[in-house]
């Protein structure tokens, strides 16, 4: 089982900007399921590594970091944008 996943953040569907979508993220995967506290109902983990997200400018930099630290990983390919080309006049057909 991989210790981390490397992915590129997709564009936010509620915003028109593309800020932060060019960076790659290395995110550690939790080793255990999150237990529920019976008193408060909140989820919690003793493993704080699952909260760590590292940002890299390129995929190669993220892979090099994981290899250097001995972290097994899997790469999630970047989502391909779906273009819907239409004219303004198509709204009235």
Radius of gyration: 19 Å
Low-confidence stretches: none
Describe the global form: flat
**Domain tally:** 1
Portion in helices: 10-25%
What name is given to the CATH topology? Double Stranded RNA Binding Domain
Count of individual beta strands: 4
Named at the architecture level, the CATH assignment is: 2-Layer Sandwich
Distance between the termini: 52 Å
Residues in β-strands, percent: 15-25%
For the structure shown, list the relevant keywords.
single chain; about 90 residues; alpha+beta; Double Stranded RNA Binding Domain; 4-stranded mixed beta sheet; 1 helix; flat
Written account of the structure:
- The chain is an alpha+beta fold and 93 residues long.
- The protein has a single domain (4-92), classed as Double Stranded RNA Binding Domain.
- 12% of the residues lie in helices and 18% in strands.
- The protein contains 1 helix and 4 strands.
- It has a 4-stranded mixed β-sheet.
- It is flat.
- 8% of the residues are buried.
């Amino acid at each position: 089982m991989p210790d981390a996943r490397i992915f590129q953040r997709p564009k936010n569907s509620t915003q028109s900007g593309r800020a932060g979508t060019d960076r790659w993220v290395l995110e550690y995967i939790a080793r255990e399921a999150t237990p529920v506290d019976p008193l408060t109902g909140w989820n919690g983990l003793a493993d704080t590594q699952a909260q760590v997200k590292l940002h890299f400018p390129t995929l190669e930099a993220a892979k090099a970091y994981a290899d250097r630290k001995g972290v097994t990983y899997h790469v999630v390919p970047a989502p391909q944008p779906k273009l819907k080309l239409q004219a303004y006049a198509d709204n009235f057909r």
